[in-house]
């Protein structure tokens, strides 16, 4: 009986010892993985503090690919207050969820650190990463029982690469058995963003601009399907200088754009903006892929506007069925000087050498909205030529002489107002313009013929007065 009690007591003691040994032995626990771009960085990181690998940042407002210039893109005079991107960019939302924790470039060596809480410093034999078993000898120098560093290459494929750890084996010093590290804690998968080497870009062609319409073909190239098309992450916006008047969601590949009900003769800006994550460490970015301008045509166009010294003539053409002629005005210094409301196409009795503005007004309706607009051009009338006058003396005798007047007056605007004979301090004597002979003069005296003439250049400056003289001693 005593022997049985002794045996039971011994078993109890051994059981307690084994239980005590099990209680004091702590199973290593996996706490997570981090990724770094260098071995030194990998050895410095912990599961709570890790560094992201950043790619080269790109300007978010410039497309990464060159896009061709097509008709309608020119914008020599941007008369908008600001531009479309100033209005649109702030209104676009981006996804702030950062599903990717680490970033790398193509074919770049990165270092994955497996973090383990291993207070007993048990020997780690191996772990399985993405289905591949890595033995302890493959760990990088500097690894220890709590930080296992493995060098891997990011590979040649852009996108998100996932690294999943399945199991970690260690040797339990208490019984020299190979056991599994506790994997109940810590994220077993890390995602590495491999920066895309091609980003989306667009080409715009076949642009057609009408009086109230705009059409074009837009081709979206997206090699890696970066853009979220289902949620309209790439759009064409049409801006009229004050607000966005149209938004069209684009798809990958060919897009046919048709926009109607635009105002005639109005300047518009169209821009194509996308939101995507280039996997360069900056998250989703707003990218302007295209930004250009066009002006819709007017219903009427002025043609063959010409002028002479006193008149301006013109013609016009009509585009499309929309729009009706109202009137044609001629303005000077912003004020209307003449109006034509019939079929006449000439303005007469104008000032010479003056600048005028020709305006053709038309009206039209789009829906329930009526518009009145005009097309215009500036043109100057030609100048009249200032005339010249000269006088000469001939047939001099002791008591008479003749004078001859010569004039250059291509516009026939010169008028002689008076011809006078001057003799020393005597009062001027008016000469008869019907004869050129001056007689009954004193001999050995000096006389002067003075001719006063006027002309009007019809330029709004009024009448000019000039004089011409010649002297004769008989």
Description:
- This protein is mostly beta strands and 474 residues long.
- The protein has three helices and 30 strands.
- Strands 2, 4, 5, 7, 8 and 9 form a six-stranded mixed sheet that branches. A four-stranded antiparallel sheet has the order 13-12-15-16.
Features:
single chain, 474 residues, mainly beta, Immunoglobulin-like, 4 domains, 30 strands, 7% helix, elongated
Topology:
Elements: H1 2-24, E1 29-36, H2 39-44, H3 84-88, E2 102-104, E3 109-117, E4 123-129, E5 132-135, E6 147-153, E7 159-172, E8 177-180, E9 189-194, E10 201-209, E11 214-221, E12 234-239, E13 244-249, E14 253-259, E15 267-277, E16 284-295, E17 300-307, E18 312-318, E19 324-332, E20 335-340, E21 346-347, E22 355-366, E23 369-380, E24 388-394, E25 401-408, E26 415-422, E27 429-430, E28 437-438, E29 446-456, E30 463-473
Parallel strand pairs: 2-9
Antiparallel strand pairs: 1-3, 3-6, 4-5, 4-7, 7-8, 7-9, 10-11, 11-14, 12-13, 12-15, 15-16, 17-18, 18-21, 19-20, 19-22, 22-23, 24-25, 25-28, 26-27, 26-29, 29-30
Q: Radius of gyration over alpha carbons? A: 48 Å
Query: Can you tell me the overall shape?
Result: elongated
Major sheet attributes: 6 strands, mixed
* CATH fold name of the largest domain: Immunoglobulin-like
Compose a concise summary of this entry.
With 474 residues, the chain is mainly beta. It has helices at residues 2-24, 39-44, 84-88; strands at 29-36, 102-104, 109-117, 123-129, 132-135, 147-153, 159-172, 177-180, 189-194, 201-209, 214-221, 234-239, 244-249, 253-259, 267-277, 284-295, 300-307, 312-318, 324-332, 335-340, 346-347, 355-366, 369-380, 388-394, 401-408, 415-422, 429-430, 437-438, 446-456, 463-473. It has 4 domains: 23-55 and 99-194, Immunoglobulin-like (Sandwich), CATH 2.60.40; 84-94 and 198-295, Immunoglobulin-like (Sandwich); 300-380, Immunoglobulin-like, CATH 2.60.40.10; 388-473, Immunoglobulin-like (Sandwich).
